[in-house]
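Key result, reporting period 2: structure in, sequence out.
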């Protein structure tokens, strides 16, 4: 009997975007295409980070809730949310800062002109600002399903669709199709706050040290933001079609991502953020040469 409302709750995420797409037709066909491209780019990190983690934790959360282990439930959920926030925050900054370079590296060729790049990069900046909220909502929704509560995510999801449409309509004349991307990020952030408030009320206070941990993650993200500011202009220039061979552009783009990743992990190491070793452990399973580095950091 839980299945229909559960499916509706899972569909709210897509319904929100479909509603935005329908509104985008009011501003022209190019706007619809631009938002669709930007959405696809947002879904890349979201799929890698949020969907994979959220799917894995559901069986564990369900078992803990059935056993009445609320402390374990809270710890497991927190253990899923922390890596999501740890990785989503810098990913959001990179997606925002490198939005033009990303679009022209991946798409700008043939009929996809520099004007097309500008049309896609603009909403991508607004969508990137909501990446953390998308990730958090995905995990928290699974927590409600583990509690056999499909009603709360559905009610909140429907309310968020209405809020999303309201924000989009209110700003559409002033901002054009960019208002729709902004509405998506704002409404999803409101959804994250609403779901978090309900969970907090049910499960109790956050784990000790959460605020200090978050400050450290924000500090590391700020360092990454500085690195992105330094790299953004030269990266955008070198990835402009025609400025260098395509292969060279791709290699330099990947190098820039590598530099940013190194800066973030180095900052996390200096700030003693525990999720660093967890992330490196997952990577080291695929890259054996990193195992010794992971062992040293965990020591």
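The corresponding designed sequence is given below.
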């Amino acid at each position: 009997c839980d299945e229909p409302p559960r499916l509706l709750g899972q569909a709210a995420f897509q319904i929100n975007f479909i509603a935005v797409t329908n509104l985008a037709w009011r501003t022209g066909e190019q706007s619809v295409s631009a938002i669709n491209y930007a959405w696809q780019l947002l879904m890349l990190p979201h799929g890698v980070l949020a969907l994979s983690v959220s799917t894995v934790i559901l069986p564990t959360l369900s078992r803990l809730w059935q056993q009445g282990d609320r402390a374990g439930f809270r710890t497991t959920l927190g253990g899923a949310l922390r890596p999501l926030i740890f990785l989503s925050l810098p990913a959001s900054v990179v997606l925002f800062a490198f939005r033009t370079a990303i679009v022209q590296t991946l798409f700008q060729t043939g009929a996809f002109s520099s004007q097309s790049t500008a049309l896609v990069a603009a909403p991508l900046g607004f969508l990137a600002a909501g990446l953390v909220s998308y990730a958090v909502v995905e995990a928290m929704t699974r927590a409600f399903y583990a509690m056999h509560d499909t009603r709360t995510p559905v009610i909140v999801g429907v309310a968020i669709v209405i809020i999303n449409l309201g924000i989009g309509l209110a700003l559409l004349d002033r901002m054009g199709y960019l208002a729709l991307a902004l509405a998506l990020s704002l409404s999803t952030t409101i959804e994250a706050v609403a779901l978090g408030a309900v969970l907090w009320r049910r499960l109790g206070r956050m784990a000790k040290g959460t605020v200090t941990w978050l400050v450290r993650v924000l500090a590391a993200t700020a360092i990454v933001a500085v690195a992105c500011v330094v790299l953004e202009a030269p990266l955008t220039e070198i990835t402009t079609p025609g400025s260098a061979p395509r292969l060279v552009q791709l290699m330099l783009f990947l190098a820039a991502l590598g530099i940013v990743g190194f800066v973030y992990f180095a900052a996390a190491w200096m700030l003693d953020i525990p999720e660093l070793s967890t992330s490196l452990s997952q990577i080291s399973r695929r890259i054996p040469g990193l195992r010794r580095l992971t062992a040293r950091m965990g020591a």
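The radius of gyration is 20 Å. Residues 1-6, 286-290 have pLDDT under 50 and may be disordered. This case is discussed further under Risks and Mitigation.
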